[in-house]
Amino acid sequence: MCEYSTLAEPYKIKMVEKISLIPKEEREKRIAEAGYNQFGLKAEDIFIDILTDSGTGAMSDHQWSALMLGDESYAGSRSFYRLEKSVQNITGYKYFVPTHQGRGAENVLFPLLIKEGQDSISNMHFDTTKAHVELNGGRAVDCVIPEAYDTGLNHPFKGNMDNDRLEKIILEKGAENIAFIIITITCNSAGGQPVSLKNIKETKKIADRYGIKIIFDSARFAENAYFIQKREEEYRHCSILEIVREVFSYGDAITMSAKKDGIVNMGGLIAIKEDLELFNGVRTRVVPIEGFPTYGGLSGRDMDALAVGFTEVVEESYLSSRIRQVEYLGKLLSEGGVPIQNPVGGHAVFVDAKKFLPHIPYYNFPAQALCVELYREAGVRGVEIGSFLLGNDPDTGKQLESALELLRLTIPRRVYTDNHMEVVAKALINIYKRRDEIKGYEIEEEPEILRHFTAKLKPVE
C-alpha cells in the first residue's frame, strides 16, 4: 500500500449537510428544558453530534444506488435474498432473519432462550441487552477482565472475558441456570475495547464443556476483527473477512445492530449457525413483533443498502481510516491532560469522568455532569456510560454504582472531519481547566427501565 494512501480518507465527499452552533445562552436554555438529559435535545440544537454511532453514518454511492434496487414485496423479496447471501458470506451461518435494529433482535431471540431466574453472562452487557435479559426474568452478570476497569492501563484486549471467573460462576450457579454466554464485540461498555480470538476460543471451550450456547452481540464485529489483525501476531496476515468468519465460527447465534458496522441508518439481524429448532422459533416470533420473516421490520431498500454495507465494512482501507480518526481524538485529549480509557477503542473515545470530576460521587452522575458541560461549552452532544445508565438494582430499587464512569464520544462513520475532532478536544480541554466548578445532578423523574433515555435531572445545589 502506498504510504500516502494512509494519510487521507479513502473516499471523496459528494454531499454535505449544514450545521451551526447556536449561542451559549440558547444552549443553556435548551439543556435545561431537556431536563439536563442530552437525549431530550433537538437535532437543530446540536453542533457536533457524537451521541452515538448507531445509524448515524454516511452511506456510500454504492449503498445509495442499492436503494433503487429495493424490492418491497411483502414475502420473498429479492432484497431479502441478496441480504441473506451477504450475511451468510460474513458469518458462515445457515439461518438468518432481519430485524429493524439490534434491540428488535434481542426482543425476538431472548424469550426463546431465557427461563425465569436464569443468568446471562457477558464480558459486559450493553444497556438494551441487559434490559431484555431482565424483562425476560433473567439477571445480567458482567464478567470482563479486571484490566478493563483501569483506564490508565494500556492492554490490547480490554474487552476480553475473564474466563476463570466465568467458569467459577457456572460452577456456583449450575450450568442449567445459565441461559447463554454473550460475547460483545467490541465491548462497548468497557470503552469500545476488542476481544481477542485467543480469548474467544477459551470461552468457547468452557461453553462446550457445560453445554451453554454462545451468542455474539456483534454490532462492531469488523472493528473487533481489525484490532485482532493488528494486535494478535497469529492473524497479522489474515484478511478482515477471514478473521470475522473465524470469530463467528465459535458462536451459536448472533444478534446485531447493523446500524453500526452495517453502515446503514436502520437495520439489525439474528443469525443462527445450524439450530433449526431455534430458527423456527425465531421465525414464529418475528412475525407478530417485527414483521414477516423475509423483511422483519425493514423495507427492501434498507436490506439492499445493508447487503452492500457488509461488503464495505470489511475493507481494510475503510477500517484503517475510521479507527485512525478515533485515535486522533484520543491523542488530542491525552496531550491536553484529559483522562481517557486507554488504549482508544474502535468507535469512540471514553473520557474517565471519575478522574476528571473526582469531587462528584457516583450517585450524582459525574459522567452525565461532564456530558451536560460539553454541550454548554461547545454544542457537542456525547453520552454517559456510567451509574446513570446502569440504573437501579431490580431487586432493591437502589442506585447501582458503576465500576466505570465514562463520557462516550462516539464517532459516526464517514461523517466528520479531523477539524471536528479538534473542536471536541479543545472544548473538553477547556472544561478540564475549570473542572472544580462543575456540579453533579440528581434525578427528578425516571422510568423503571432504560431511564437514561427519558429521565429528567436537576443540578445538585
TrEMBL record:
UniProt-listed InterPro entries: ArAA_b-elim_lyase/Thr_aldolase, Beta-eliminating_lyase, PyrdxlP-dep_Trfase, PyrdxlP-dep_Trfase_major, PyrdxlP-dep_Trfase_small, TNase, Tryptophanase_CS
Residue ranges of every copy of the Aromatic amino acid beta-eliminating lyase/threonine aldolase domain listed in the record: 49-426
PROSITE patterns, per database record: BETA_ELIM_LYASE
Residues with the N6-(pyridoxal phosphate)lysine modification: K260
Pathway this chain belongs to: Amino-acid degradation; L-tryptophan degradation via pyruvate pathway; indole and pyruvate from L-tryptophan: step 1/1
Cofactor: pyridoxal 5'-phosphate
Sorted UniProt keywords: Lyase, Pyridoxal phosphate, Tryptophan catabolism
Uppermost EC category: lyase
Classification via SUPFAM superfamilies: PLP-dependent transferases
Domain of life: Bacteria
Catalytic activity reported: L-tryptophan + H2O = indole + pyruvate + NH4(+)
Coiled coil: none
EC number: 4.1.99.1
Assembly information from the UniProt record: Homotetramer.
Family note: Belongs to the beta-eliminating lyase family.
HAMAP family recorded: Tryptophanase
PANTHER family per UniProt: BETA-ELIMINATING LYASE-LIKE PROTEIN-RELATED, TRYPTOPHANASE
Name of the protein this chain belongs to: Tryptophanase
Organism, as annotated: Psychrilyobacter piezotolerans
